[in-house]
Amino acid sequence: MAAAAEASGAGDKYRSFLHGEGEKDTVWRHGAPPNYDVVNKLFEEERTKEWAEGSLEEKVQRPLKTWEMELVHKVRPEDQKSVHSQKFCASTNGMGFLSRKEVMAIGGYNAFLRTTLPPEHRIYDPDRETLESGMATFLAAFPRGFAIEVLDVYSGPPRIAFKFRHWGYMEGPFKEHPPHGKRVEFFGVCIFHVDEEMKVEKAEYFYERGNFLASFLSAPAEAASGSGCPVMGGN
After folding, report:
1. DSSP 8-state symbol, 166
2. Which residues, including other chains, have CB under 8 Å from residue 204's CB and lie 6 or more apart?
């Protein structure tokens, strides 16, 4: 995977398909490739695992980070190279699968935060948000970005099951809630179904949505490490 990153001209240590000849015609949401220096610094300072280049864990972590980048910053589906161009679909917490077109239409945050809770009980309501408003909400809350790492890989391709950790610091407001400056994080499990080129055909995410969003309302307790098994929640 690292070799593939070099071949694609990637200028980021952890993501492929950002720079180089292969991206010369890419349409970027903000007119140019994003710069991940700030969130990479957070990742390097606080990651709990450091995987050797070429290891299975590193090969899983790279497409995980790359797909998040492509989903947020690449406007056209044909520019997204980490997932299968025709087959890709994704689900969260056992809900129905969304096609790539559907995910791109509502935005990654809204797709990831889908819920069956009644609207009056939703801390964040993805059904009322647009792609743009969802991005703006979390960019405001996490000025240094929202880092992600792979913690364990339980099975190799073509059906890769792994545990991940996502975290950032609420140093900006979340909706009407003022920043508390503390770390907000959650742990989850994901299954990537990949082809022979390691392109993701299907992604299944499982995590506790309610605890994650509740962390924006008040500073999480320092003792709450969240290191236990992630729970599939409908919150």
Report:
1. E
2. 90, 91, 190, 191
